[in-house]
Design goal:
This protein has 419 residues and is mainly β. The protein contains 3 helices and 32 strands. It has a 4-stranded antiparallel sheet with strand order 1-32-31-30. It has a 4-stranded antiparallel sheet with strand order 2-3-4-5, with no helix packed on it.
């Protein structure tokens, strides 16, 4: 290196005359190489101590052992692998038949009893994210992310109706009539009467129509939006009855209504569930699910249930941090709180306040919300449970997973254990 880029010596310290070493400065002579050899021997001995036992079958044997361990922990009755490993986004069941849709742009109708495919519904342009049976199981509605919606008849799978809208976020049937609803990314909620397809559009606030639910006697619809607001619509006239604002500081994820009462509950990404009086459009309570209400809360409400039993007077919340709570709607105090996993992805209500909780780690945990006791655990998914449905007529639980599979579990044993 040249001297022009060499920093000057510190003040009072002269530059060394040369690099020579004098005999007076030498304390001990060490023969070159002996210390290095000793160090190498010690390192070799350490390596021998840490050496792993080699499996005779190599990597293939290791993979087989891991697969065997996964099978041992899988207590499902049946695994449906028709989506070829692509994420399964949605599932629903009725009268012994399941429908699933996935990232592979495919939708299948198959039997819960043996997994046999009854029909593949083809012609999709994007991931199939929504699939729902009508109440009597006579109609099946399926939608993909691009906004293509189709309704087919069961049995026969004849196409009854099809339509295209903006990007679909959710799909839902009216609880008592063959009327279909869909919410879109462009803030619209659509309603169609089947089989004719007569339609009506309910316009939102400009934010994504994240969720919707039919209220009360079935003549009103409540929609929740990405900006935190809600709107209550009259289904017959199309009129906006109330704009519900001020309850949330972030988007609304989920909605539920109390049967026979003018009360609705909305769950938000801000970590609260808000109680609304539908007659007045006013906020009447707040259920704080985390440390505080804030945008993007770690305790965001991902799923929400209100049991139909009026005597129970409960709302059940499942949050992003894995907590499921049963709230007394009269006192607005949590009766029971249970940590079920890393994060709740979906909730489904069984009999006698049994709640099935899908989690981000892939397990479904069944909890008795009256006591907070864990009743059963359903294992087998290797990634998040994205959707689930209780099939009461067959005593089964249907799940859709991010690991590319759908599974069927026997829930009769869980009910028997509770009894």
């Amino acid at each position: 290196m040249g001297t022009e880029n060499t920093p000057p010596p510190s003040p009072g310290v002269g530059a060394p005359e040369d690099d020579a070493m004098y005999e007076d400065d030498v304390e001990e002579e060490v023969p070159l190489g002996e210390e290095l050899v000793d160090d190498e021997d010690d390192a070799a001995e350490d390596d021998d101590d840490d050496e792993l036992v080699e499996l005779p079958g190599g990597v293939d044997q290791l993979e087989a052992l891991l697969e065997e361990e996964e099978r041992a922990s899988d207590n499902s009755r049946l695994t449906f692998a028709g989506h070829g490993g692509s994420s399964v986004f949605c599932c629903h069941a009725r009268a012994g038949l399941a429908v699933t849709g996935g990232e592979d742009d495919r939708a299948f109708v198959w039997r819960l009893a043996d997994g046999g495919v009854e029909q593949e519904l083809t012609g999709w342009e994007d991931s199939v994210t929504c699939a729902r049976w009508s109440r009597d199981g006579g109609l099946l509605a399926v939608a993909d992310m691009s906004g293509r919606i189709r309704v087919v008849r069961n049995p026969g799978w004849e196409k009854v109706w099809s339509f295209e809208v903006g990007d679909v976020l959710w799909l839902k049937w009216h609880p008592v009539a063959n009327v279909l609803f869909a919410g879109t990314e462009d803030s619209q909620v659509w309603m169609w009467k089947m089989p004719g397809g007569d339609s009506r559009v309910f316009t939102g606030s400009g934010e994504r129509a994240e969720c919707g639910a039919v209220m009360g006697e079935g003549r009103r619809l409540l929609a929740g939006y990405g900006g935190g607001g809600l709107r209550l619509f009259d289904l017959r006239s199309g009129e906006t009855l109330h704009s519900l604002a001020g309850g949330h500081r972030d988007g609304v994820n989920c909605l539920a209504a109390a049967a026979g009462r003018e009360l609705a509950v909305s769950g938000g990404r801000d970590g609260v569930a808000v109680l609304w009086n539908l007659a007045s459009g006013k906020q009447v309570g707040t259920l704080l699910c985390g440390a505080g209400q804030e945008e993007g809360s770690a305790s965001g409400v991902e799923a929400l249930l209100v049991p139909g039993d009026k005597a129970a007077n409960l709302a059940i919340t499942g949050t992003l941090d894995g907590v499921v709570a049963a709230w007394d709607l009269a006192t607005q105090i949590a009766r029971t709180t249970v940590k079920v996993g890393e994060g709740v992805t979906a909730l489904a209500l069984g009999e006698e306040q049994l709640v099935y909780c899908g989690t981000r780690e892939g397990a479904v945990r069944c909890v008795d919300m009256r006591s907070g006791a864990s009743v059963a655990e359903f294992l087998g998914h290797r990634a998040a449970v994205l959707d689930l449905a209780v099939c009461g007529d067959s005593g089964s639980l249907l799940t859709a997973g991010d690991d590319g599979s759908a599974k069927v579990y026997d829930i009769r044993a869980a009910a028997a254990a509770k009894a």
